[in-house]
Amino acid sequence: MSSTDSDNIGRLYSEEGDRLERQIARRTGNPSVARDLVHDVFLRFWERTAALSGNPAAFLSRSARNVSIDHLRRERVRETYARVTPAAEAPSDPAYEAIAADQSREAVKQAIRDLPEVTRRLFLMNRAEGLTFQEIASRCGMSERNVAKHMAKAVASCARALDDTQTP
């Protein structure tokens, strides 16, 4: 490329650059993207200047239109991909997982210790000894419904303790 060609492209950039930037910004809605795309248009023009014939301003306008359409298509693909692709989870750290499990276990143990005596005893009979509500009711001389109420209270207390350990 001769210095005359470079001068002509520089002059053309001075004359047409702002207009092309406004044209692209109207399509994309983003002036900074428009500025980058205008540079791409002039790079294309510079690469093809030897093979071009005709009106350079028309080539630049058509190129500006095409690069803005291409940009919008790429953005649409990115947005679609972002919507359908779940965010990648951070790789798990075994040490962190072990600490979190220990904290959860301790929180549940403390929640069980904090239960009223009867509720704690019934809960342990069910969870530690594996007794059914009916078996617990007959051993303790109460209704199954009463056992179920105590169990619900105990399970809710343990669930709250777990939630508290997982909330930062």
Written overview of the protein:
This protein is mainly alpha-helical and 168 residues long. The chain has two domains: 82 residues, Rna Polymerase Sigma Factor, Chain: A, CATH 1.10.1740; 73 residues, Orthogonal Bundle (Arc Repressor Mutant, subunit A), CATH 1.10.10. Helix content is 80%, strand content 0%. It is rod-shaped and about 105 Å long.
- Report on the biggest sheet: none
Q: Specify Rg, calculated over alpha carbons.
A: 35 Å
Multimer state: single chain
Q: What general outline do the C-alpha atoms trace?
A: rod-shaped
Strand content: under 5%
What separation lies between the terminal Cα atoms?
62 Å
Tally of domains: 2
Number of strands: 0
> What CATH architecture of the largest domain would you give?
Orthogonal Bundle
**What level of helicity do the residues show?**
over 70%
Estimated structural class: mainly alpha
The whole-number mean of residue pLDDT values reads 87
* CATH overall fold name of the largest domain: Rna Polymerase Sigma Factor, Chain: A
User: Regarding CATH, which class of the largest domain?
Assistant: Mainly Alpha
The number of helical elements comes to 7
Instruction: List the uncertain runs.
Output: none
Give the helices and strands as they follow along the chain: HHHHHHH
